[in-house]
Input
Amino acid sequence: MSLVETWLSVALVSASTLGGAWLARRHSERVAVWLAIASALMFAVAVSDVLPDAWSDARAADVSSWVVVGAVVAGFIVVTLLSREGCGCVVDGTGPTPVGLHAPGRHRRLKEAAGTALFGGLGTAVALSTHRAIEGATLVLSLSVAVVAALVVHSASEGLALTALLDLAGKRARRWLVAACLSPAAGAAVAGVWPLPGRSVPVLLAVMCGALARTAVVGLRVAVTKRKEGLLTHRHLIAAAGIAVVLAAAMTTVRSAYGVRPAPATIRHPAQRARTDPPPLGAHPVIPAPPSRSDDRPRSTTRGRHQHTRHRGESCLSPSDHVRRRSPQTAC
Output
C-alpha cells in the first residue's frame, strides 16, 4: 500500500481509540459494564495476540523462551506493585469511632479501589502507548486489511478500558488518550528512519503482555466491586467473557487461515534476510548418477580398471578405454 494509505490506517486506529473513550464517557452510568467488557477484551488481546507475536518473534530472533517468560512475569509484577498503591484512614481508638461512610474499613476500601484504578490506568497507558508505537511501525512495513481491522477492534477496547479506569480514579484521561493516539503515528514515523532491533522486539512485547494481562485483571476486580451497588450482574460478566472468547477465536482464525498477524509487532529492516547455515568446509554436493541399462550387467575389476564382461567372460572394452569417462555404454 502507499504511504497515504498507511497514514490513513494510523488515523483510523487513533480514531477507534477515541471512539472507545467516547463510549465510556457517553454511558458513564454503565461504566462498570463497559470496564468488564473492555478488561475481558484486553486480556484476550494479551493472550491470543501479543503473546503469540512475542513467542514467534523470539524464535525468529534466536531469543530464549525463558527470556520471554521472564519478561511476561516482570511486566505482570510491575503493574501489580503499582496497583497496590493507596492508603486508608487509620482508627487509633483515641477519638470517636467514625460511622457511615467513614466507618472502619470503609474509607480504606474506597481508597484501595481508587488507587487500583489509578495505577492500573497509568500502567495501561504506558503499556498501550509502547505497544501502539510498535503497531504503528508495523503498519509501515506490513500493511493489510486484516491487520488494520484487528487493530481497530482492539484499539477501541483499549481506549474504553483506559478511560474507564482513570474515570473511576477521578483522574483526567485526556493527556493519556492523546499519547495513545499519537504513539502509532510516532512509531510509523520512526520505523522509516530507525527500525527497532529484532532481538529487542520480543522482549518488549512480552513485558507489555504481562502488563496488559495484569491491567485486565485489575479492571475486572474494580468492575466486580460494583456488583454490590447493583451496577454489574452475572449476565454482564457472562457477556464480557463471551465477547472476549469470540474475539480471541476470531484473531486465532485470521492468524491461522490467512497467514497474517492481527496485531503484528515485529519491526525488522526490509533488507534483512533469513539466516541460513553455510555448508561445512570441504563438503561437496553428491549428485547421484542417472540409472542406465548397463547397470544390470555384471562388472569386474582388473588392475584398477572397471571392465564390462559378457556372459561368456569376454571383455567388450579395449585396453585404451580406461581414459574414457564412466558413462553408460552401448550394447556390445
The helical segments are 3-26, 31-60, 65-83, 106-141, 145-168, 174-191, 200-224, 234-258. Residues 3-91+105-258 form one domain. Confidence is low (pLDDT under 50) at residues 85-121, 260-277, 300-316, 321-325.
